[in-house]
Design brief:
The structure holds 2 protein chains of 2 kinds. Chain A has 16 helices and 12 strands. In chain A, 47% of the residues are buried. A 6-stranded mixed β-sheet of chain A has the order 2-1-3-10-4-11. A 4-stranded mixed β-sheet of chain A has the order 6-7-5-8. In chain A, helix 2 links the parallel strand 1 and strand 2. Chain A has 2 domains: 161 residues, D-Maltodextrin-Binding Protein, domain 2, CATH 3.40.190.10; 213 residues, D-Maltodextrin-Binding Protein, domain 2, CATH 3.40.190. By secondary structure, chain A is of the alpha/beta class. Chain B is mainly α. Chain B folds into 2 domains: 38 residues, no CATH class; 228 residues, MetI-like (MetI-like fold, Orthogonal Bundle). Helix content of chain B is 76%, strand content 1%. Chain B contains 15 helices and 2 strands. Chain B has a two-stranded antiparallel sheet with strand order 1-2. The radius of gyration of chain B is 25 Å and the shape is flat. Classes of the chains: A alpha/beta, B mainly alpha. Chains A and B meet through helix 15 of A and helix 12 and helix 13 of B.
Chain lengths: 455, 296
């Protein structure tokens, strides 16, 4: 036998052995799959190893948050979870990848994590989770939150995961300057203005501030708080007399706001250094201050204006794409993430609030419990005016934000004529609405299927 | 014999070949063409063409942008203020590092340190120094110079932010100019300065009559780089001023990374490119070195 022929035979032998091994592995895999699906239906628990789950999320994408998800929230889950966040600042990647997998008809992602509004965009690529929602009926997730996951249909597209909102935090030293008769838990915008003025007049320092830096979220203050509270809307009332009043107010309180507000991104930093005493921001951007020195701060709902107490809830949910390679694993992970222990750890580690109504242990610490109370008070307040995050804008979402920050810069920072600026910017705003065809969202009245119109 | 002679003749023939210099710079030209010139052409196309149609609308949007005028003036202001200051400082630093004094190695190490720090990090460092409860105010209070914190980064005061950015930029990038100057200084033969010393020229006279003229090529290079970099100033400004001040480069970034409009971002980049080219041409023209001196 020549050398060549022997090598060929050896190769053939390897191929045979490989086929036998592969067949054995396939049999084992089938047996395992059958066993694990039986286990899941029988025990409905995460005890059985659910295998590989790719969890793709556009929430909890900051480095510290990603670490917390991997090392705290997923710890103890019986399965091999690969948590993949979208790159910071590139929200579009989320939609692109989900759409690409759906179009290819073959996916790698078994679980999605995103905001309520995001699911409206990718609704048709999601599995119906109604059976899971029925199983979770007694898990303590409020009905109205669960209903939001139906996206206005009968099917359950996502299961509520965690929530957040924006609140106010004040240093205790500021409380002595509150206007007479004002209750910090039921402030009006007028009282808030007086408070800022009192502090500036009596201490000579401007200690009320806004996160108006390049990465600050001040655009959400206009979209969810100031403008709804003064005008009752966000888009439709953009150049209404109420909006003019709101911007006049902003220009006026800005005189008592900390001059460095234009460079503040996360209000917890200047709050902790003592530069700022009173601030509005996203809970996740305030949490460090309250965690570090809870006794120094109070947390309370944002103020109320002539049209109500505008506030912006942020609801994140979990969903399973149609093309999920491990849908059972994805659903097991949903159960895990909405379980009481994980929900409590979510609050403790990433500063998002649980969707499960439950008594959370004092172990979380005074700061987080204070914030949780402030969030609850805002939601339950009788005059609350719910303002949703913009919906249906896709890539134009940041351009939409630009309209509000540009308006702010021109009116408040540069002191241009309010009505003229609003008329200018209203034209740009309408262009975005027409381009995306986005219908109105709350608190603007529904516009059916037609794009939202600035009146 | 023939086997030994053959490569020599090949080498000789190659050396005599007129195309040799061109062949040698070909890889560089190809590299620059592929990674600089071509993307530049593409960027221009992006600025002038939307979905196949030639248009000026990105430029119209740029000129109408809320921040355009401020970005342009602040960028030019930075170039005009930073570059001359940096030159004087860099010259002094290079002279110190080049002087025959004790501890000049230490000086050099300290001067070069900021070069190792990224510009965003430098911006953040200066932000923590200058912010109201920052290191500077803490220090001044401890020493007893001030009793109430001064807000250095107050955008409502006309020049506070400009000064802060200038200080940070000078700290960060003067070392770069100094390194070029130092190389130039070390290329000046000692005979000239020693001869001048023998004939009784003082220090300032030597600097003015010998060092500066002979440093001209180095000055040209440094000026070229500095002006181009000053037009690109970005991270320091974002870190120190936030939304209060913007430059052309920060606007280009915002339109690309935040508003996802590559056309307007490309229009901003094209403007930066044109401004850089014009000023580079100006520098080359003003500091042109006579051929005789280049052959020295």
């Amino acid at each position: 036998m020549s050398k060549h022929a022997r090598r060929h035979e050896q190769k053939g032998g390897t191929v045979h052995r490989f086929i036998v091994l592969a067949a054995a592995a396939a049999c084992l895999a089938v047996a395992f799959a059958a066993a694990s699906s039986a286990g899941n239906t029988a025990a409905a628990g995460p005890q059985a190893d659910v295998g590989k789950v790719i969890f793709f999320s556009n929430q909890l994408t900051q480095v510290s948050e990603v670490n917390q998800v991997r090392n705290t929230l997923l710890k103890g889950f019986n399965g091999d979870v690969d948590f993949i966040p979208t790159p910071v600042g590139q929200g579009q990647v989320f939609f692109n990848r989900v759409e690409a997998e759906a179009r290819a008809g073959r996916g790698t992602i078994s679980l999605l994590g995103a905001l309520h509004g995001d699911y409206l965009v990718i609704q048709r690529y999601l599995r119906d989770l109604t059976p899971l929602a029925n199983q979770l009926r007694n898990a303590g997730i409020p009905r109205d939150l669960m209903a939001l996951g139906k996206l206005g249909t009968r099917r359950q597209y996502y299961i509520p995961w965690m929530q957040a909102t924006y609140i106010m935090v004040a240093n205790r030293r500021a409380l002595q300057y509150l206007p007479r008769g004002a209750d910090v838990n039921a402030l009006t915008y007028g009282q808030y203005h007086q408070w800022a003025k009192n502090i500036a007049d009596r201490t000579g320092q401007r200690r009320v501030a806004f996160p108006a830096g390049t990465n600050g979220l001040i655009n959400r203050f206009f979209q969810g708080y100031l403008l709804p509270s003064f005008s009752g809307g966000v888009v439709t009332t953009f150049r209404s007399p109420g909006a003019v009043q709101g911007w006049k107010y902003m220009r006026s309180i800005w005189r008592y706001a900390h001059p460095q507000s234009l460079s503040y991104n996360f209000m917890q930093d200047p709050l902790q250094s003592g530069e700022v005493w009173v601030a509005w921001d996203h809970v996740a951007r305030l949490v460090n201050a309250l965690k570090a020195r809870p006794q120094d701060y109070v947390a309370f709902p944002p103020p109320k204006g002539p049209k109500g107490r505008g506030y912006m809830p942020v609801l994140a949910g979990l969903a399973v794409p149609r093309t999920a390679p491990n849908a059972a694993g994805g659903q097991a992970l949903i159960r895990w993430m909405t379980g009481k222990a994980t929900q409590a750890r979510t609050l403790g580690s990433v500063g998002f609030f649980p969707v499960r109504a439950a008594r959370y242990s004092r172990q979380l610490g005074e700061g987080l419990l204070k914030m949780n109370t402030a969030v609850g008070k805002t939601q339950r307040s009788k005059d609350a005016l719910k303002s949703l995050l913009p919906v249906g804008l896709g890539v134009e979402a940041n351009n939409f934000n630009r309209i509000y920050t540009d308006t702010f810069v021109r009116i408040v920072v540069r002191g241009e004529n309010i009505q003229r600026v609003l008329n200018d910017q209203a034209a740009d705003l309408q262009e975005i609405m027409n381009k995306t065809g986005a219908p109105c969202w709350a608190p603007d009245p529904p516009s059916g299927r037609r794009p939202c119109r600035v009146r | 014999m023939a086997t030994v002679a053959q490569p020599v003749t090949l080498g000789r023939r190659l050396r005599r070949w007129e195309g040799l210099p061109y062949a040698l710079i070909l890889p560089t030209v190809a590299y620059l063409g592929l990674f600089f010139a071509w993307p530049m052409v593409q960027a221009f196309e992006l600025a002038f063409r939307i979905e196949g149609d030639w248009t000026l609308s990105p430029f119209r949007s740029m000129f109408n942008d809320t921040n355009f005028n401020q970005a342009l003036t602040f960028t030019l202001l930075l170039v005009v203020v930073i570059v001359p200051l940096q030159f004087v400082l860099a010259l002094v630093m290079a002279l110190i590092a080049n002087a025959k004094i004790r501890g000049r190695g230490l000086f050099l190490a300290i001067f070069i340190l900021p070069l190792a720090i990224s510009d965003l990090a430098a911006g953040l460092v200066w932000q923590t120094i200058l912010t109201e409860r920052g290191y500077l105010n803490t220090f001044l209070t401890k020493v007893g110079i001030i009793d109430q914190d001064y807000i250095w980064l107050d955008p409502t005061k006309p020049n506070n932010l400009l000064i802060a950015v200038v200080v940070a930029e000078i700290w960060r990038s003067t070392a770069f100019v100094m390194v070029i100057f130092l190389a130039g200084l070390q290329g000046i033969p000692h005979e000239y300065t020693e001869a001048a010393e023998v004939f009784g020229a003082g220090f300032f006279q030597r600097v003015r009559r010998i060092i500066l003229p002979m440093l001209k090529p180095a000055i040209q290079v440094a000026l070229l780089f500095r002006i181009i970099f000053a037009f690109e100033a970005f991270a320091v400004i974002i870190a120190i001023t936030g939304r209060a001040k913007t430059t052309l480069a920060t606007e280009a970034w915002r339109w690309q990374a935040e508003y996802f409009d590559s056309h307007i971002a490309a229009a901003y980049s094209a403007l930066i490119l044109v401004l850089s080219l014009v000023s580079a041409g100006l520098v080359l023209f003003l500091f042109r070195t006579p051929r005789a001196q280049m052959m020295r």
